[in-house]
Amino acid sequence: MYALPYAAADALGGLALAGLVHALSKQRRAPEYPGPAAAAAFYLWNPLAVAACCGGSSGGLEAAAALCALCATACKRPALAALALACAAHLTIHALLLLVPLAMLLIHGAEDLSFDPRPEACALRSRKAISLRRHACAGLAAGAACPAGQVGDPNSKLDPSQDFWGGAAPRHWVAETYGFALRAEDLEPNSGLHWYLAAQLQGARAPGLRGLRAPTRALLHLLAAGLAAPMALRLPRQPLLGFLVQAVATCLWHPYPSVSHVALYLALLPLFAVRLRRLQAPQAMALSFLVMAAVFPATWHLWAERRSGNANHLFAVTLLFGFWQVLLLVQLVTTARDVERLERVRSHHRA
């Protein structure tokens, strides 16, 4: 019975996603696939959403509120959207970052998700830019794998229950809800980067590095909010993409991300099925995500519960998952830029 509220929230999120697709279909801006029922089923039967529901994660409530706000905004109901966003912000302060793409959606309306970028879009990118991006991705992958195997003593086991900050737990509701997330006091391992960087700075031998914990934490929070305004200024007429990008960025830089945050942006990806065809190596990205989804729980169980694993293995999976999300963000923004250029060319030819 404890999972009943979370199951109801997931059902509400599925209905909101179906309503979003239905509203886009009325405006002739939805892709041919998925339909409303398929979009809702993809979210409800997502193993990550099911796991969050069975585990009693409040992230499912946040995701449902965010989807309701998105659906209400697409249907031009700002009061209902504000109520849903307020419910999401009641759970976490990071939900307020969705205010910018929702405002752009209310002002400009949804973009045409059925528009298929022509093959000429690839010609807009020079070979030099593609080569530089590939070398950068390879360098990031190597950099993500090397520190995880070399930082610290390979035989050491970091106690996840250790309090690195030495602060007392706040008592006020606002401090417990918002201040707790902003201070990132609990360093129990998760799929985010806050705990990893804080643990590395705490275990650093140089005393000066230990004083960088607060600036590093502030920088990560700024990175979570740093994409909302640039996306609104650069691509104001693609608010649904801005919502998706902000959802991925929030999951990437959130101090306590859960599988519900991942399930949220995975539920929105099928809406961009036409544009996802232009992504580079989509099969490799899907396969790598499945591998990380299987390896992360195993490494966490061996280290945090069985006390028999190596912490560096969990560090490696955490960094690689962060790199995977960064790569997804880069490809989504690049595809959106190509679509915008093609639309300008089409409008110029029509004129």
Automatic annotation (TrEMBL):
<comment type="pathway">
    <text>Glycolipid biosynthesis; glycosylphosphatidylinositol-anchor biosynthesis.</text>
</comment>
<keyword id="KW-0812">Transmembrane</keyword>
<keyword id="KW-0472">Membrane</keyword>
<dbReference type="GO" id="GO:0006506">
    <property type="term" value="P:GPI anchor biosynthetic process"/>
</dbReference>
<dbReference type="GO" id="GO:0042765">
    <property type="term" value="C:GPI-anchor transamidase complex"/>
</dbReference>
<comment type="similarity">
    <text>Belongs to the PIGU family.</text>
</comment>
<feature type="transmembrane region" description="Helical">
    <location>
        <begin position="315"/>
        <end position="336"/>
    </location>
</feature>
<feature type="transmembrane region" description="Helical">
    <location>
        <begin position="79"/>
        <end position="107"/>
    </location>
</feature>
<keyword id="KW-0337">GPI-anchor biosynthesis</keyword>
<feature type="transmembrane region" description="Helical">
    <location>
        <begin position="284"/>
        <end position="303"/>
    </location>
</feature>
<dbReference type="GO" id="GO:0016255">
    <property type="term" value="P:attachment of GPI anchor to protein"/>
</dbReference>
<dbReference type="Pfam" id="PF06728">
    <property type="entry name" value="PIG-U"/>
</dbReference>
<keyword id="KW-1133">Transmembrane helix</keyword>
<feature type="transmembrane region" description="Helical">
    <location>
        <begin position="47"/>
        <end position="72"/>
    </location>
</feature>
<dbReference type="InterPro" id="IPR009600">
    <property type="entry name" value="PIG-U"/>
</dbReference>
<feature type="transmembrane region" description="Helical">
    <location>
        <begin position="262"/>
        <end position="277"/>
    </location>
</feature>
<protein>
    <recommendedName>
        <fullName>GPI mannosyltransferase I</fullName>
    </recommendedName>
</protein>
<keyword id="KW-0256">Endoplasmic reticulum</keyword>
